[in-house]
Amino acid sequence: MKIVSIVGARPQFIKCAPVSRELRKEHEEVLVHTGQHYDHGMSEVFFEELRIPKPDYNLGIGSGTHGHQTGAMLGAIEDVLEKEEPDIVLVYGDTNSTLAGALAAAKLHIPVAHIEAGLRSFDRRMPEEVNRVLTDHASDLLFCPTETAVRNLAAEGVTEGVFLVGDVMCDAMNYNRAIAEERSRILEDVGLEPGGYLVVTVHRPSNTDSQENMAAILGALGEAGNPVVFPVHPRTRKCLGEHGLLAEMPENTIRAVEPLGYLDMIRLMAHAEKILTDSGGVQKEAYMLGVPCITLRENTEWVETVEAGWNVLVGAEREKIADAIHSFSPASRQEGLFGSGDASVRIREILTGLQGAPPG
Ligand code: UD1
Ligand code: UDP
Questions:
Q1: Of 126, 162, 199, 244, which is least packed with CB atoms within 10 Å of its CB?
Q2: Interior CA angle at 278 toward 273 and 284, to 5°?
Q3: Which residues does ligand 2 sit against, CB inside 6 Å?
Q4: Which tens digits make up the pLDDT trace of 275-322?
Q5: Residue 252 above 90 pLDDT?
Q6: Which residues form the UDP-N-acetylglucosamine 2-epimerase domain (predicted)?
Q7: Contact 277, 269 (CB under 8 A)
Q8: How far apart, in Å, are the Cα atoms of 281 and each of 11, 266, 350?
Q9: How remote is the CA of residue 235 from the centroid of ligand 2, in Å?
Q10: Cβ distance 35 to 62 under 8 Å?
Q11: Do 115 and 142 form a contact (C-beta atoms < 8 A)?
């Protein structure tokens, strides 16, 4: 089967690494990078570290408003699909690259497979939620990471082509956990011993675009009492500068560093006391690594982590964040919520089973 896989943003590179490795055992894959993320530390580092094949196309779309960015991708992806004539198009997650890929393919009557289908935060003000809903409804194969995702799709009337395969981020974690421990020097670089420090990531517009939210988050972190390592997403760095908050960051407690490669990130997270984040992927990884997670949002699409007692939603309220830093502690044992690390194998097998009779 000829598969065009579309990626463009940091979490998609991580997700595509195990899937691409599997697919290429039996299928022809053409990898398209939209160029949504383009800094070395947001893109190339993942291709190098995770040995992801070099993209066959880099569309170089770059940053822009939602409409301009998605529209530019749509046109450029359509050109690639017309030239390559794949049997199926594979998209990941919930970014503008995901939506553009799914839409371009659906309009050309090429079947779409969505990895990480069925996730819902039920918050339509999140750009990702719009992308998730539209992508799922344009997809023919929906690879769900959790039972909740399958139920969410059923509630919207989507039951055909739905497969519960587990989470490909679990595959990536299982494959790279020991490699990270062996190769990463991040703790030495930031001068920290395992334990006793916090890791924070923030990049959701609901936080970065609000001076009040960012001031509350930094305020709580400044008083945490433990050192905090803060790999700063480029969007966040830009917004902190605009809010006049970069200069005010208390350097002795908050160590703002450039975005990290995946191996450094998982070693850093694995030895943290707690993780604070508004990222989707980081909430899951905290759970997989058995580190308590404090989520700087009012809602989450990864509800299982909250129900299991390993994740708490605190929004961006300074007092709630400070309380959680000091007193949040998981109530239960951590178990395998996201599958057993064979989601990519199952995806390959399902696609192989469809050879000669692709969906659509
Ligand atoms: C995007 C996704 C989000 C995902 C995140 C992962 C959408 C709508 N959002 O958010 O779902 O969680 O990626 O990290 O698709 N920038 C750089 N260098 C880069 C990339 C971005 O400087 O390599 C800056 C630019 O100023 C850009 C801003 O970051 O305008 C935002 O980038 P964009 O890709 O639009 O959205 P993210 O916030 O990264
Ligand atoms: N990540 C990374 N370096 C960083 C921050 C995050 O490698 O500095 C990884 C993280 O471990 C996870 C993925 O990027 O695998 C999550 O991506 P992000 O938070 O950008 O997006 P989201 O998951 O919210 O869509």
A1: 244
A2: 65
A3: 10-11, 14, 201, 203, 231, 259-260, 262, 265, 279-282, 285
A4: 999 999 999 999 999 999 999 999 999 999 999 999 999 999 999 999
A5: no
A6: 24-351
A7: no
A8: 7, 11, 24
A9: 13
A10: yes
A11: no
Smallest CA-to-CA distance from 101 within 74, 127, 65, 132 is with 74
Look at ligand 2, atom 24, and give the residue with the nearest C-alpha.
279
**Gyration radius from the chain CA atoms:** 20
Does the ipTM exceed 0.85? Answer: yes
Q: Which residue has the tokens 């975005």?
A: 259
Spatial CA neighbour of 283 closest among 267, 256, 301: 301
203 classed as catalytic: yes
Task: List, chain by chain if needed, residues with CB within 6 Å of any ligand 1 atom.
Answer: 9-11, 36-39, 42, 63, 94-96, 127-128, 203, 233-235, 238
Name the residue of 190, 265, 278, 338 whose CB sits within 8 Å of the most ligand 2 atoms, as the mutation to test its pocket: 265
